[in-house]
Structure formats: structure tokens, C-alpha cells
Amino acid sequence: MKILITGGAGFIGSHTARALVERGDEVRILDALTQPVHEPGAEPPIADTAELIRGDVRSPDDWQRSLRGIDAVIHLGAYQDYLTDFSKFFEVNAAGTALCYETIVAHDLPVRRVVVASSQAVYGEGAVRCAKHGVVTPGPRSMDALAKADWDVRCPVCGADVESVPTPEEFANPRNSYGISKIAAEQATLALGETYGIESVALRYSIVHGPGQSVRNAYSGLLRSAALRMRERKAPVAFEDGKQLRDYVAIDDAVAATLLALDHPGAPGRAYNVGGGRAWTVLEVIDHLKEIAGVDVDPEISNAFRVGDVRHVVSDISRLQGLGWEPRANLDDVWHRYWAWLDEIAPPAQTVDDAYARMEREGVLRRAGS
Hints:
The protein has helices at 11-22, 60-67, 86-106, 143-147, 177-196, 222-231, 251-263, 282-293, 318-321, 331-345, 351-361, and strands spanning 2-6, 26-31, 51-54, 72-75, 113-119, 128-130, 134-136, 163-164, 199-205, 207-209, 237-238, 245-246, 248-250, 271-274, 280-281, 300-301, 304-306, 365-367. It is globular, with a radius of gyration of 20 Å. The protein is of the alpha/beta class. It folds into two domains: 2-127 and 166-364, NAD(P)-binding Rossmann-like Domain (Rossmann fold), CATH 3.40.50.720; 128-165, no CATH class. Helix 1 links the parallel strand 1 and strand 2 (26-31). It is built from eleven helices and 18 strands. A seven-stranded parallel β-sheet has the order 3-2-1-4-5-9-14, with helices on both faces. The longest helix is centred in the first third of the chain and has 21 residues, at 86-106.
């Protein structure tokens, strides 16, 4: 099978491309190789035998060049960040996805299946359980509450304390530009696929961890920021109080889910959560990294928050498990591999601090009480 991977030089894309090449598929990659994910002039991590087309998912011409002779598409190319260039999220993520289908339909291309990367970000605040009102989906926390360091989510009906529960695919309530653009792309994928007879699958990835994750992209998140500061013998920073819950999935498991979505006859027509199967607090992850790094530094509880961020979100993975997928990797092993990979690439110092400073300048990162 000949497969196009957009964003195939990125984190998930490069690992997926190698897995496809190893099993004997032909792989073509469409990637813009832009900052901050890619360093200018650096050799992109392209799988052996894969063909690279440098181009943009917003370009009809680049889609036409890339889709010639293709049997299936894995569309991972996306814009991810915490910055305030709101329209770019929709141009790349939503319009870029629609352009994939537009090109296939307009040129009557024999593309059998399209797998599109969605995101856990479509949930906004994840599902919670109230003792009185059961499972509910709260709206965003108010800026007034966050400014007072009031971090907790409460029942939207009665205001009582709640507990986080795994969020199934039926829920979606994105609160930032990235999440909104991703639910738009996902809805276009499933609707256009059904209308035009193109087998289509959306994968809502949780936070994917492992070697190859960009060290320059602030969106790469906690693993990157904590590990890089520890390498400099600095305290890792925990936003809010560090007790927020997150869902991490190993890159090997994310690739396995992607290949399943590409191959399984029962996959098309739905969205699937791709998560790690358990909740971690930010402070728990930092503790594990401290042991791996052998660094005895306490985290800095910053009392800072990212605008549009959520308190707790963990994905319900039972739908994808129903197709035979399981998260099998041990995250401690993955984090060990990530730390060893950082030793190999020797990332530049100050990367994290520079990202924090830029986010603060642009009003994306704010401090309670200020």
C-alpha cells in the first residue's frame, strides 16, 4: 500500500513512517518543516526509503502533488501552540483537512482511507462526577477564579466539588483555538468521508510521550519542560498547583493505534480516544523524572496558569480497546528512553525559559494574584 503521511517528519509522523516502511508499505511524506518543531537547516528525521515533499497542507497544489498514486492518507500535519495567532489554527488544522477531501473529490482520486489526527483538546474540561448530579461536563474555569488561584472545577449545576472521570468520545467542549480547530477538522473528516464514500477515522490523541518529541515546541508540554530544566539543574516548573490530572500515552502505543485505524475494517466512521489508560498528576510525573535524572530538586509551584488550559482531562479508551488495541508500554521505560535521547541530541540551554518568557509577554501565561 502507498501511504501519504502529512506531518511525517514530526514526532508521531516520523515514528509512524518508520513503522510503515518496516512492514513493507511505500511512504510519502508532506511536511512544511517549519519552526519551532524543526530547526532551520537541520536534517529532518525521515524514514529510510520514504519520499519527502516539502509543502503546506494549506496549498491545493501541494495536496495534488502529494496525493498522486496514494491509497491511504494519515493526516498528522497540524499547528500546535499556546500563542494568540488564533486564525492560523483554523487555516492549518480545519481548512487543511477540508482541502485534503476537496482534492480527493475534485480529482476523483482512488484514496481508500483517511486517518486524521484529532486531539484530547476537543474535550476542554473533561467529564466529572458530582455526588448529586452524576457525570457532567463543566464549562471553562473563570479568569477571575484563576487569578485568585482557585484552580478546582465544580459541578456546573450545584457548584459542589467533583471528581474527574474518563471522558468518552460522545463529549466535546473545546475552549481554546487549537481544540476548536481540531473538532472542526474531526467533524469535516467524518461528515465528508461519509458523504463521498471515503473511509475515514479520527484519532483523539492524549499527550504523546517519547524520544523524538520536539525540544523547541512549547506545546510539547511537561515531559519536555521538566526534563530540560532538570538537565540544567533547575527546578521543573509546575503550573497552577501541580495537582492537575493528565493522560499520557507512549509513542509506541500511539503508532500502534494509528496503524490499527489505517487497517481495521471496523474502524471507519468514528472518532477514537488514544490514551494511556490512567491519570497522572503533574507532580507525579515530575517525581518519576527526578528519579530517572538523579536530580534532587523540588518542583517550583509557580501559581501561574496558561489561558485556555484545563484542570483535569483523562480519556476513556474503551472504544479503541473494542478494536483490539491496548496501551502496552510502560511509561517509566518511555521516560528513560526520552532522557537517554536528550543526552544524544544535547538540546540547547534556555529553551524552556525562552518559551515561558514569550508566553508571558503575549499574555498566554499569567500569574495568579498579578
